[in-house]
Amino acid sequence: MAIPQIKIEDFDYSLPEDRIRVIPLEVRSAAKLLVYEKGEITDSIFSELPNFLKKGDLLISNNSKVIPARIIFQKQSGAFIEIMCLAPFGISYTEAFSAHDSVSFTAYIGNSKRWKEGKLELKINWNNSNESVFIERKGIEKDAFIVEFTWNFNAVFSEVIEAIGQVPLPPYFQRKPVANDVGRYQTVFAKTEGSVAAPTAGLHYTQQVLHAIANAGVKKEEVCLHVGAGTFKPVSADRIEDHEMHAEFFEVTRECIQAILNCEGRIIAAGTTSMRTLESLYWLGVRVLEGKEADAVEQWESYLSSLSYSKEEALMALLNHLDATKRNSICASSSICIAPGYSFKICSGLQTNYHQPKSTLLLLVAAAVGEQWKDIYKHAMNNDYMFLSYGDTMLLWF
User: Fold this and answer.
1) CA-to-CA distance for 340 and 357, rounded, in angstroms?
2) What is the largest CA-CA distance in the chain?
3) CATH number of the domain at 8-65+184-397, please?
């Protein structure tokens, strides 16, 4: 394959504001479900998802947990400075959230012109004591800033950010978070802290749906990819080859890799983040087979590779790599871009929400179903489906 020559304007569509659901449904599984298979579209609701799966299928979801990454500081002058944490800087996610007195993150800074130097202070009540959290700009990393948080009370950073942060709702919601968002902008299988945006396809699952899936003989596995803010940004370049993807960190356990190898049915990714993780997993296996480090998948790596390996060969290489390094999971970063022309290696099904026009996520959908993405989106628009993070969903077979 070669790097795709794609005009992003070909992946535009009209999305009226009133078709963006900004308040979540009271019942997660009451969302509409569009099912697409072999050119046919079926309308259903998400609670019926188990009826569209078969015994022996394997459903894989993303268990990353959204952190309250949006933090508002106020300068003595009265100016408000908004910090949007992106990812730990220089250390792992585990180390960052267990830090005791200081930690650095890459971040976007709103109103940054009003804060060029000095520490900002945010006063909080911690265990009935008045304490302070400080933040200071430390540098620039690509298109983001490096900021350092410091505090001198007995708490780890996961507790600190829980106390000072807000739910990082997407900006297109055009509203402030409310109490209900704390739970609703989180999947029921969220476990590992790190995402600054929800893996939204997973927001529709309930324990009842998961039980019905299990009762249908469908197996369930989880991966972890910490969703970055860049994932949902529309492409600003005219052509996709000029767009730079943000790297995101992921982890996949030995058990999950083995389950993929053992699967006798279809493998379905619950969400584009799960799909990107699984496809990156394959390319990490290719890196091992080619004698390279299994630490990162670059944006166009899958398009530039001249060698072809089976899914089994790539995944067995990863299992052997885990044996050799005495580890139980693969940890790496990925900036993979999946666009039309891409050949999927792991999955034959994708459950996903409706994505923004001119976004890399829409390109991923088009890579799966081709030009039929236009028919699918047109059907959804004509049949009152709601779009984006709190919107309805679809199940695509390809």
Assistant:
1) 15
2) 63
3) 3.40.1780.10
Q: How far is CA 232 from CA 169, 226, 236, in A?
A: 12, 13, 12
309: left (phi over 0), alpha (psi -120 to 50) or beta: beta
- If one counts every other C-beta atom within 10 angstroms of the C-beta of residue 214, the result is 13
**Residue type at position 275:** M
Two tokens at 116?
A: 């060029």
Q: Which residues contact 325 (CB under 8 A, 6 or more apart)?
A: none
124-178 pLDDT, tens digit each: 999 999 999 999 999 999 889 999 999 999 999 999 999 999 999 998 999 999 9
* Radius of gyration of the CA atoms of the chain, in A: 21
pLDDT digits (tens, 9 = 90+) for 103-124: 999 999 999 988 988 899 999 9
What is the SS3 string spanning the chain?
Answer: CCCCCCEHHHHCCCCCHHHECCCCCCCHHHCEEEEEECCEEEEEEHHHHHHHCCCCCEEEEECEEECCCEEEEECCCCCEEEEEEEEECCCCHHHHHCCCCEEEEEEEEECHHHCCCCEEEEEEEECCEEEEEEEEEEEEECCEEEEEEEECCCCCHHHHHHHHCECCCCHHHCCCCCHHHHHHCCCCCCCEEEECCCCHHHHHCCHHHHHHHHHCCCEEEEEEECCCHHHHCECCCCEHHHCCCCCEEEEEEHHHHHHHHHCCCCEEEECHHHHHHHHHHHHHHHHHHCCCCCCEECCCHHHHCCCCCCHHHHHHHHHHHHHHHCCCEEEEEECCCCCCCCCCCCCCEEEEECCCCCEHHHHHHHHHHCCHHHHHHHHHHHCCCCECCCCCEEEEEC
CA 392 to chain centre: 17
CA–CA gap between residue 139 and residue 165 (Å, rounded): 22
Q: What is the rounded CA–CA span in Å between residue 102 and residue 107?
A: 15
Nearest to 285 by CA among 352, 375, 345, 204: 345
Structure tokens at 114: 């009003």
Q: Where in the chain is the domain with CATH 3.40.1780.10?
A: 8-65+184-397
